[in-house]
């Protein structure tokens, strides 16, 4: 680990900073959201809609660097709540349809428990470019997983699309791939909205036993 940051659990005083950071990072560098034209404000609105869950889970994490700036954020919630919330707000219905289909594949194959308090869902992980390859992403995940263990969660689940995040979760942290969807083949409303996504081939759902 080479990062010089303090990692803290997200609370009411830090959740707005955490959401702003995630929205900015995903708007600037996430080709999947870019492919369907999601703006920073639309991403922020989606995150703000779910902020109560991200705080109440007591598993979301924020990394603050030596200059008192946000270096990275992980937002987490309970998988049971994630599966039952309203996903179809107009701006992001394509992405959430994709996520719903991916989770449906997982649920049909593995029949997981959908009770609250069983599976933690890692919803977002965003590290500032100047802190890439510093170990902050891994540290945020490990901190969130420890919080989940402290609350007696049994599993962790994440949907990841970039090769870097898949290498972190599956290659380094030991998550097991359980479901996947190839972006270029995904259809929504008779079209292929992600056909121009070139930096990654598929979105992967993976699980870790805690």
Concise summary:
This is N-acetyltransferase domain-containing protein. This protein has 210 residues and is α+β, with helices and mostly antiparallel strands.
Structure description:
The protein is of the alpha+beta class. The chain has eight helices and seven strands. 40% of the residues lie in helices and 23% in strands. The model has no long low-confidence stretch (mean pLDDT 92). The protein has a single domain, classed as Gcn5-related N-acetyltransferase (GNAT) (Aminopeptidase, 3-Layer(aba) Sandwich), CATH 3.40.630.30. It has helices spanning 15-29, 31-35, 40-49, 51-56, 79-84, 93-110, 136-150, 163-172; strands at residues 5-9, 61-65, 70-78, 119-127, 155-160, 176-182, 202-209. Strands 1-2-3-4-5-7-6 form a seven-stranded mixed β-sheet, with helices on both faces. This is N-acetyltransferase domain-containing protein. Pfam families: Acetyltransf_1. It comes from BD1-7 clade bacterium. GO terms for molecular function: N-acetyltransferase activity. Residues 57-202 form the N-acetyltransferase domain.
Distance between the termini: 22 Å
Mean pLDDT: 92
Helix count from the secondary structure assignment: 8
Can you tell me the CATH superfamily?
Gcn5-related N-acetyltransferase (GNAT)
Number of strands: 7
Q: What share of residues are in beta strands? A: 15-25%
Name of the level-1 CATH class: Alpha Beta
């Amino acid at each position: 680990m080479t990062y010089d940051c303090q990692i803290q659990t997200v609370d009411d005083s830090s959740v707005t900073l955490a959401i702003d950071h995630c929205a900015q990072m995903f708007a600037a560098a996430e080709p999947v959201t870019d492919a369907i034209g999601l703006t920073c404000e639309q991403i922020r609105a989606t995150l703000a809609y779910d902020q109560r869950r991200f705080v109440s889970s007591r598993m979301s994490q924020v990394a603050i660097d030596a200059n008192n700036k946000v270096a990275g954020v992980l937002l987490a919630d309970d998988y049971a709540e994630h599966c039952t919330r309203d996903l179809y707000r107009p701006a992001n219905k394509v992405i959430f349809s994709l996520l719903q289909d991916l989770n449906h594949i997982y649920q049909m194959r593995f029949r997981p428990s959908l009770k609250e308090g069983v599976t933690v869902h890692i919803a977002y992980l965003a590290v500032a470019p100047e802190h890439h390859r510093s170990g902050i992403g891994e540290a945020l995940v490990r901190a969130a997983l420890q919080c989940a263990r402290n609350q007696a969660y049994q599993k962790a689940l994440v949907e990841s699309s970039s090769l870097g995040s898949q290498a972190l979760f599956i290659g380094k942290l030991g998550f097991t791939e359980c479901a996947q969807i190839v972006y270029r083949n995904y259809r929504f409303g008779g079209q292929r909205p992600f056909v121009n996504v070139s930096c990654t081939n598929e979105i992967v759902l993976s699980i870790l036993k805690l």
